Each structure stands twice: as structure tokens, then as C-alpha cells.
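Everyone, carefully examine this protein record:
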Amino acid sequence: MTVNDWVHILAGLFILASLALGHWVSPYWLLFTAFVGANLLQYGISKFCPMASILKKLGVPESRGGR
């Protein structure tokens, strides 16, 4: 899987987890949902993604080699 795949997976997991925590634990967890949404919005504008930078440093490939 590529960086782009992982970014989508992690963003979806973070949103679903924070919505569940906001419902069952504390509504303040919804701020984390807003944070993830804000990062997705700023990526659309600036094409900079902090999670992608972290994943690249961890050695996740940027593209599928040979496909």
C-alpha cells in the first residue's frame, strides 16, 4: 500500500474513532474530528499533508512500483 492509501485509511479511522469517543466518552472528542477535517481541507488547498510526511519518513512507498 502507498502513502496515499494509508492517509485515507488513517483519516477514516481517526474520524470514526473520534465520533464514537465523542458520543460515548466526551463531546470534546469531536474537536479531534474537526482537526482531521481541517487537515483534509488544508491539504486540498496547499497539497501539504503532515501524515504523509510522517509515513514517508517511516518508509512507506509513495507509488506502486511497476504497476
Remarks:
- Residues 3-57 form one domain.
